[in-house]
Design goal:
- This protein is mainly alpha-helical.
- 80% of the residues lie in helices and 0% in strands.
- The radius of gyration is 18 Å and the shape is globular.
Length: 246
């Protein structure tokens, strides 16, 4: 059950403060991605900056939303949440692998991505299969959970108290996608803005989908998290195929 006022409009005198907090929250991941994917590439600072940025990103929302975390695995209709999460996640994962296999596997863009990923794995000391698998599982299950807390429960949850429901879905999704655009740009190399935009649109759509699922399941994170896990596992499988399968 929601606490009184938890999802109502934010008081006018506090709107400016919340806008400042949310703009900072939506900007931090992109700036951090630029730092450890671009500005510090090849230096010893990549891993420390990555870990520090993630700690800064997730510490506040996780602490503030402790009560939500405790309740998130106990929705009133867990079966519906599991079915919705796994259904959308498996569909998205299947599309991801199919798009990779049909459009990119064995091509020039895949070769460019493999080279860039190899460099990044070395920067993060994840250039062995065992370390990659461990990192893939942590990212798919733990990091995806933290991202759901951050982007759906915290950013989207507060945005919808500041602007209309329709716009809150889109603005939160664009913020979620922004730092992924940096990663995609690094991996696919020099390309047109159009190609980068087209490849980034699925991330925006994923952000919209997960906030819609979050709201439709009573502001619980189980369903969007399960969906997110499936997508991340598919992406990690693509990475494995690019780097280790050959």
């Amino acid at each position: 059950m929601n606490r009184p006022g938890e999802h109502g409009p934010i008081e006018p005198r506090r709107r400016g403060l919340w806008w400042a907090i949310l703009v900072a929250a939506m900007t931090l991941p992109t700036v951090a991605s630029l730092a450890y994917f671009v500005w510090l590439e090849g230096t010893a600072w990549v891993a420390p900056v990555y870990l520090g940025a993630k700690a800064l990103q997730f510490a506040g929302p996780v602490a503030v939303l402790g009560a939500l975390l405790a309740a998130a695995f106990g929705p009133s209709r867990p079966g519906r949440s599991v079915a919705l999460g796994l259904g959308t996640g498996i569909a998205g994962a299947s599309f991801t692998w199919l798009a990779y296999a049909v459009l990119f596997r064995g091509g020039e863009m895949a070769a460019t991505a493999a080279e860039a990923i190899t460099v990044k794995l070395a920067d993060f000391h994840l250039d062995t299969l065992g370390r990659y698998v461990v990192a893939a599982l942590l990212i798919s299950f733990i990091h995806s959970w933290l991202e759901e807390v951050y982007w759906r429960a915290f950013v989207y949850g507060r945005l919808r108290r500041l602007i209309s429901s329709r716009w809150s879905h889109l603005v939160a999704a664009i913020g979620f996608a922004a730092h992924h655009v940096v990663v995609i740009g690094v991996y696919i190399g020099d390309t047109s803005v159009l190609v980068l935009t087209v490849m980034s649109l699925p991330v925006v759509l994923g952000g919209v989908l997960w906030s819609l699922i979050y709201r439709s399941t009573g502001n619980r994170l189980l369903a969007p998290w399960l969906s997110h896990v499936c997508l991340d596992l598919a992406i990690m499988a693509v990475g494995y195929d690019l780097i280790f399968a050959g």
